[in-house]
Hints:
Elements: H1 4-23, H2 29-36, E1 43-47, H3 55-61, E2 64-69, H4 72-84, E3 90-94, E4 107-113, H5 122-135, E5 136-147, H6 155-163, E6 173-178, E7 185-190, H7 194-203, E8 207-214, E9 224-230
Parallel strand pairs: 1-2, 1-4, 2-3, 4-5
Antiparallel strand pairs: 5-9, 6-7, 8-9
Helix pairs in contact: 1-4
Amino acid sequence: MLDECDRKSDETWDLIAESFDLTRRKPWMQCIGFIDTLSKTDTVVDLGCGNGRHLLPCAEHCKAVIGLDISKELLNITKKKLKGKNLDNTILLHADMTNIPLKNDTVDSILFIAALHNIKGKDGRIQSLKEVKRILKKDGTALISVWSRWQDKYRMHFLKKWFTRKGQTEFGDIDIYWKQHGLDIPRFYHLYSKKEFISDIRLAGLEIEEIQDIKLHSKKHPDNYFAIVKKQ
Length: 232
């Protein structure tokens, strides 16, 4: 059962699903590099799998993949792609990332790419990371990425916010509008500082093996943080 916040997120991503798919086809090299390190016998979960751009190469490499997303429309797009490639080793789940419908200690690895930052509220984000820990097997690993607060595009916005903070919103929260293909739809994001990202991962009880500052689109300041984490 999705709560009101989840339903709003569901509706938002359903509205932009087709446009999103047209502009998000190429997988990130950081994700492909992580997938290549996984065993071919692994069971992997892709949290916030979206249009399947990282789920498909994972399904081609690993034994079994579970894709989870809040948007039914994005899941339908992924389902069609899986059928087109004759991949039958994948299950797709319409669910909330803070309450993953999988048993404890059941998966070998997790992809959690550009999705944690779409969860509203610090407690919800940490709960989602705790769910990552819960479903991972002992010594299981996850690749987690978030957008950076201090990237070139939003740096001045948050510098101004820092000095003029008012109201109840959490510092780092922002509505980012999807403006492709004639659309103009706000999406909730919580952009992370590196310090906060590290703190939330540790608060969830996960061990950080590696963390990287990555410039995917920015010229000067990193726009993404990628962390490889492990369940002890």
